[in-house]
Amino acid sequence: MQRILIIGNSGSGKSWLGECLSESLELPYIGLDKVFWEAGGLQIKRDEADVYKRLQRIKVSEKWVVEGVFGKLITPFCDVASFLIFLDLPWKDCREGLLSRGTVSEKLSDPAAAKKGFNELLQWASEYNSRKTKTSHSYHNELFEKFCGKKVRLQSREEINEFCEVISTNKTLN
């Protein structure tokens, strides 16, 4: 079984790394934002029962790369993940990542709503180190410290790029 879980703040590069690992290791990639939010951006939450069913289907699969920021969604994967990656980047790097990516809601028909949503995301992500919820640095760090399997903490874009390059070359996490 190869189950890779990636955690970190918004803009840290979870999706980029997840896609890199998925392609290099030929594993299905699942971004938990797509499980939690309805299609079309980060505007409408899915029904909780639907989210739970989707999470269970993913969790029991033998192979996956799952990434997310929401502790409520990622915690159940910690029991079954074979490898945990914590993207522990400074806020300035996450902010740059968000700004360079832009809003994922830009396909909405209302550009003003997309801009408002993106500004709210920037504000929310900037509070990652001070929040005390399951979407915080302290909670992600706790998950990382308690994880008993293989794990790595990457703290810069350079480390993330190097990690991805090594995996792409070797086609394995070992």
UniProtKB/TrEMBL annotation:
It comes from Motiliproteus coralliicola. PANTHER family: DNA TOPOLOGY MODULATION PROTEIN FLAR-RELATED PROTEIN, YALI0E33011P. It comes from the Bacteria. This is AAA family ATPase.
